[in-house]
């Protein structure tokens, strides 16, 4: 093999028959060339080089002019509508897991989405809240903003209570700081080509990781499904501890509404499964998929039931309630928090990227295209950094929304724009019971293949 270009490592091998292997020597030649560094070579600016850089960093420029409208527009539009419908309750649910007001979960469904539309390379990956990250943010908030720091005296009950307003404000600052810093870490790791580490992630490892993550998502919702409160656990052996706490706290005096929450969860689950089968039947008869399970069960029925039966006051079932309108102006978190969250931010950066790239690779292998691991890392980092500036919680690849996106015919990143526009048109201040959103997570994991 001849080495005509500089800075090459060449190996020359003689291919042998098995019977002649012992009679012939293998010729292995290593040809080294000087690895001299020339600043002018690497800093030279040319039109082809600029074009290559722009196409690599802004994938939108490459695929948008060649977008096949006739072949994929309908599927992307349907997937975008589905994504817009799903974003609201699921984003609220992830904010509740992170122990911050629900509106900050909605911000995660707004700003990061637009950023990823410009910089992302996966056709099917939907970014948004992720349960593992939400649990990590909750643990960080419990450590830096514990209940003991916000106890005040209540004259009506003659007892100490938690000042939830002040505590929520502190927790939001902590979440925003760790989100922004994790995004900056991801951008830095992308620029130093850390995404090459994804080469060592085999397909079985990726599928096993995503499957394990779905179990964590399901188990983390047990408290909401049964309407019980208990001390949350993080780290090893979290799943058996959650199961034990849920069982022992179901029939306590503080959790008298647990069976009402469970009944609501079961009704929603059955309705979603039936609607899913109806949707599959209609998809064979109609040219485009119809989101029956999303429109009929979650948005219409659950909202009407919550409103007409007044579930919050009558049965003490938690509802989202009113959500403030408007968007937050960009702002930086207090610098005093940077040192306290820097370790958690790096861990969240790695965990969030691992989930996103694993999920993206699953879809890429299934549909026969490639994702740029380094560009995905940069896109995810920019989404988190911009989201952090606008008070968003940390985001990663969203398993339920990505599965729904794929199952409803989405084929390109244009789904992001459709979902983004649909989010703008929706009015999120609806009293949806929390159990409805969590039942959707369970049904999606159960019915998708």
From TrEMBL:
<feature type="transmembrane region" description="Helical">
    <location>
        <begin position="345"/>
        <end position="365"/>
    </location>
</feature>
<feature type="transmembrane region" description="Helical">
    <location>
        <begin position="257"/>
        <end position="274"/>
    </location>
</feature>
<protein>
    <submittedName>
        <fullName>Solute carrier family 26 member 6</fullName>
    </submittedName>
</protein>
<feature type="transmembrane region" description="Helical">
    <location>
        <begin position="92"/>
        <end position="110"/>
    </location>
</feature>
<keyword id="KW-0812">Transmembrane</keyword>
<keyword id="KW-1133">Transmembrane helix</keyword>
<feature type="transmembrane region" description="Helical">
    <location>
        <begin position="415"/>
        <end position="445"/>
    </location>
</feature>
<feature type="transmembrane region" description="Helical">
    <location>
        <begin position="116"/>
        <end position="136"/>
    </location>
</feature>
<feature type="domain" description="SLC26A/SulP transporter">
    <location>
        <begin position="75"/>
        <end position="425"/>
    </location>
</feature>
<feature type="transmembrane region" description="Helical">
    <location>
        <begin position="377"/>
        <end position="395"/>
    </location>
</feature>
<dbReference type="Pfam" id="PF00916">
    <property type="entry name" value="Sulfate_transp"/>
</dbReference>
<keyword id="KW-0472">Membrane</keyword>
<dbReference type="InterPro" id="IPR001902">
    <property type="entry name" value="SLC26A/SulP_fam"/>
</dbReference>
<dbReference type="GO" id="GO:0016020">
    <property type="term" value="C:membrane"/>
</dbReference>
<dbReference type="InterPro" id="IPR011547">
    <property type="entry name" value="SLC26A/SulP_dom"/>
</dbReference>
<feature type="transmembrane region" description="Helical">
    <location>
        <begin position="174"/>
        <end position="201"/>
    </location>
</feature>
<dbReference type="GO" id="GO:0055085">
    <property type="term" value="P:transmembrane transport"/>
</dbReference>
């Amino acid at each position: 093999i001849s080495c005509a270009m500089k800075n090459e490592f060449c190996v020359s091998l003689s291919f042998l028959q098995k019977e002649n292997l012992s009679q012939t020597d293998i010729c292995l030649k290593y040809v080294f060339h000087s690895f001299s560094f020339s600043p002018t070579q690497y800093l030279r600016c040319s039109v082809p080089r600029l074009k290559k850089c722009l196409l690599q960093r802004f994938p939108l420029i490459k695929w948008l002019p060649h977008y096949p409208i006739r072949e994929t527009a309908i599927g992307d539009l349907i997937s975008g509508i589905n994504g817009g419908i799903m974003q609201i309750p699921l984003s609220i649910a992830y904010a509740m897991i992170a122990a911050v007001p629900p509106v900050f979960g909605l911000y995660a469904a707004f700003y990061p989405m637009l950023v990823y539309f410009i910089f992302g390379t996966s056709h099917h990956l939907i970014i948004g809240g992720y349960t593992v990250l939400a649990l990590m943010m909750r643990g960080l908030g419990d450590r830096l903003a514990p209940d003991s720091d916000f106890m005040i005296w209540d004259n009506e009950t003659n007892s100490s209570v938690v000042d939830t307003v002040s505590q929520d404000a502190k927790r939001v600052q902590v979440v925003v700081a760790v989100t922004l810093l994790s995004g900056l870490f991801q951008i830095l790791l992308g620029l130093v080509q850390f995404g090459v580490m994804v080469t060592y992630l085999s397909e079985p490892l990726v599928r096993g990781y995503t499957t394990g993550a779905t179990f964590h998502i399901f188990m983390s919702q047990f408290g909401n499904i049964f309407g019980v409160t208990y001390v949350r656990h993080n780290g090893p052996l979290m799943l058996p501890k959650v199961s034990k706490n849920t069982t022992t706290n179901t029939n306590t005096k503080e959790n008298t509404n647990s069976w009402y929450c469970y009944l609501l969860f079961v009704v929603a689950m059955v309705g979603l499964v039936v609607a899913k089968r109806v949707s599959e039947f209609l998809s064979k008869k109609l040219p485009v998929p119809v989101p029956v399970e999303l429109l009929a069960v979650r948005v219409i029925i659950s909202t009407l039931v919550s409103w007409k039966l007044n579930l919050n006051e009558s049965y003490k079932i938690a509802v989202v309630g009113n959500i403030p309108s408007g968007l937050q102006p960009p702002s930086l978190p207090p610098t005093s928090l940077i040192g306290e969250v820097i370790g958690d931010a790096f861990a969240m950066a790695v965990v969030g990227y691992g989930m996103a790239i694993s999920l993206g690779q699953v879809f890429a292998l299934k549909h026969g295209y490639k994702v740029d691991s380094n560009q995905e890392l940069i896109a995810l980092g920019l989404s988190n950094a911009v989201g952090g500036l606008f008070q968003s919680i940390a985001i990663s690849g969203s398993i339920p929304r990505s599965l729904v996106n794929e199952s409803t015919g989405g084929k390109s990143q244009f789904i992001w724009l459709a979902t983004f526009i649909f989010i703008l048109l929706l009015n999120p201040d609806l009293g949806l019971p929390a159990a409805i959103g969590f039942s959707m997570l369970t049904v999606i994991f159960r019915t998708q293949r």
